[in-house]
Amino acid sequence: MVSKVLRFATVTVGTALLTGMALAQYTFTPFFSQPLVQSQAFGLEMALQRLAALELAGDAVETDDDWEEVVEGLEADLARFIGSVRATDPGLADSVLDAVEGVEEAVESGSGMSEAIAEAREALEAAYAAVVPPDVRSSRVFVAALITDMSLGGIGVGEGYEEAIEDELPAYTLGYVALERVRELWAEIASSATDQQRTDVEEMLDFIATLYPVATIDEAIVGNPEEAEAPVHRIIGVLETIVDAELYPGRDMAALARHLPEELAGACERYGAGEDEQATEIVISVGYRYLEADLGDFMEFMAPDVHEEVTELIAALTGMGGDDDDDEGEEGEEGGDEDDDEVAAVEDLAAACRELMEALQEASAVFGG
After folding, report:
1. Among 142, 143, 57, CA closest to 106
2. Are the CB atoms for 170 and 163 separated by under 8 Å?
3. Is-contact 131 62, C-beta < 8 A?
4. Which of 55, 63, 98, 133 shows its CA 20 to 30 Å from the CA of 169?
5. Can you tell me whether residue 56 is helix, strand or coil?
6. pLDDT of 183-237, one tens digit each?
7. Could you tell me which residues come within 8 angstroms of residue 164 by beta carbon, excluding any fewer than 6 positions away?
């Protein structure tokens, strides 16, 4: 395990470099200007990604217990958007939940999985249309941000290869599916790129494809766990130029620290109004950025007491993160098993949300905000 001192040094140096890079201003900032819809779309994409991976795995689902985590992760994915679906179309929300439950039952029983997956995919596509407006879904900036999340997320392109080396075989298939989806999304915006930009992105996609030559594997890969990360980051760097958008929300951690409590305010209002599912969607959006954009790692060393309070409250309200900060964010993406009890233990969600806001404001103060 990497030592805390080394991790601190890495984060500190990385912060200095990225802050300098932030001086190159971009016109658009999707993770700041439209964080909720990006989070909702990411949840929908991950749910569809899991279905595709289960479909590719076939009979392996019954023989490898690790596939249970893939199925369990659907619950975390749904929490990103189900409240907004229910507010728009309660019947559709019920259909999504029923269809996902059907997949869980099919996996458990070992029969009817193909039909259950097809039904769940149809329900999720309808939910996608209900939650993400067509003009947003066709936006180059939205698509580029979605590519970023699907490349760097806990079940994304980079992580899938790394975990496959660590004998997490379903992670490989999830990464394979993520790469295919990234290719599809790239095709939607490739016409906006210059010839050189297209060449750069497609070279990197082709290289990553050599790391995912088949859809499933039956034993761990031997290789460099970080081999998919460098081309992924190069792609994102090119995308930033193509769409003129900041795609690394943690590049300016001070700005991110200021933004998160502002975004969270809407969640606290919704909890107070009894709109718990929609409130939780916002908390997930906030919590994910705190945990995944280097801000959490930085705060762990600069203000550990504040960091502990923030992560405990995020876990209590959403199930993301947990006690092991080295894996923070992954539990939320993969469906951690500590989640349900902790969420149920929060008696006053609005009060817990306000506590989280105060803790995030303290985190912002570390940067002078």
Report:
1. 57
2. no
3. no
4. 98
5. helix
6. 999 999 999 999 999 999 999 999 999 999 999 999 999 889 899 999 999 999 9
7. 171, 172, 175, 217, 220, 221
